[in-house]
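Note to self: keep these together.
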Amino acid sequence: MKAMAYMLHSFKSTTHIKVQEPMNTLSVTTLNQFGFMEDSMKSNQIIKVFTKDKLEIILKDNSFYYSNMGIDYPLNDLSALKKLYKENRKTELKPVF
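Structure:
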């Protein structure tokens, strides 16, 4: 009986639930808001290439990728793009006003 009372008492503590921020999916508009511009020399019918500060983001099959040395790394959302930009350029990615 003492063990059950202890177990019930231990579950009465407050629980903190972390709410995640909504995912900001990438789009051409989002890339433009952060200063990425389409490179018409590298784009074709299959892919579109967006560049900013020598960082290239590729739109292929309705998905965004960072391509480096022939390997495509998928970018799922804006936070992944910001992390990639900070790792490569050593500065925060901020919207262009």
